[in-house]
């Protein structure tokens, strides 16, 4: 009986906004707010709604069944429906046009399926609106971090190669008893210097 109960829950009505629940958009651009739903027994006269910050209704739609596309009951003039329910996924995504800074916040996609014992479920996505200059600065920062990271990697590789070369030279020049002592000492010194160098390099970008 417990196993059957878990099985039923796993295949009940589900609503999803994708792998991540955050979206970033540039000011004055159009942004897609994704949402799909799934149900194990199908749907009949399904109702879906989109809310901004929990209470403000921005889109209200109905779907008769899987063979029909959604019908808009009401929508905010700046909101456009871009989904489809007759294709593979039950997509009820919307696009918010001409995004403004005041549009930043929480968007909730809510689905009600009367056919599935009036099952209800929702998913939330968070929108962040940024200025173009902020977006550009972030990109430049990522490039700088990438370049610095690459230089640190090359430096470590160079140090490792140098260590191997020194080891080979000492192996060919020194006696057995002296060789072990020198290699051990050289290994410790190089490791410590390498760690100190890496830490110094990593601290530099954060101060910039």
Describe this structure in words.
There is one protein chain. By secondary structure, the chain is α+β, with helices and mostly antiparallel strands. It has a domain at 21-130: Sandwich (Immunoglobulin-like), CATH 2.60.40. The protein has helices at residues 2-10, 132-173, 176-207, and strands spanning 14-16, 22-26, 31-33, 36-38, 46-52, 56-63, 71-75, 79-81, 90-91, 94-96, 105-113, 119-130. Helix 2 packs antiparallel against helix 3 (176-207). The protein is elongated, with a radius of gyration of 29 Å.
Q: Might you state the CATH topology name of the domain at 21-130?
A: Immunoglobulin-like
CATH class type of the domain at 21-130: Mainly Beta
Uncertain runs are 3-10, 133-137, 176-204
| Residue-averaged pLDDT | 77
* Beta fraction: 25-35%
Distance between the termini: 61 Å
Q: Looking at the structure, what is the overall shape? A: elongated
Protein name: SCN4B protein
InterPro entries: Ig-like_dom, Ig-like_dom_sf, Ig-like_fold, Ig_sub, Ig_V-set, Myelin_P0-rel
Organism: Oriolus oriolus
Keywords: Disulfide bond, Glycoprotein, Immunoglobulin domain, Membrane, Signal, Transmembrane, Transmembrane helix
């Amino acid at each position: 009986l417990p196993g059957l109960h878990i099985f039923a829950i796993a295949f009940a009505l589900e609503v999803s906004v994708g792998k991540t629940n955050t979206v970033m958009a540039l000011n004055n651009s159009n942004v897609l707010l994704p949402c799909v739903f799934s149900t194990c027994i199908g749907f009949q006269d399904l109702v879906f709604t989109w809310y901004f910050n929990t209470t403000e209704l921005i889109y209200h739609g109905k779907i008769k069944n899987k063979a029909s596309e959604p019908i808009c009951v009401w929508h905010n003039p700046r909101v456009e429906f871009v989904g489809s329910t007759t294709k593979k996924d039950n997509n009820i995504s919307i696009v918010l046009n001409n995004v403004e800074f005041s549009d930043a916040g929480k968007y909730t996609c809510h689905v009600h399926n009367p056919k599935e014992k009036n099952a209800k479920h929702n998913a939330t996505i968070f929108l962040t609106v940024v200025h173009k200059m902020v977006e550009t600065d972030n990109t430049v920062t990522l490039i700088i971090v990438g370049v610095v990271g690459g230089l640190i990697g090359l430096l470590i590789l160079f140090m490792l190669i140098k260590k191997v070369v020194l080891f080979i030279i000492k192996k060919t020049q020194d006696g057995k008893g002296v060789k072990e002592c020198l290699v051990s000492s050289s290994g410790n010194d190089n490791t410590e210097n390498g760690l100190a160098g890496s830490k110094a390099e990593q601290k530099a970008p954060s101060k910039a």
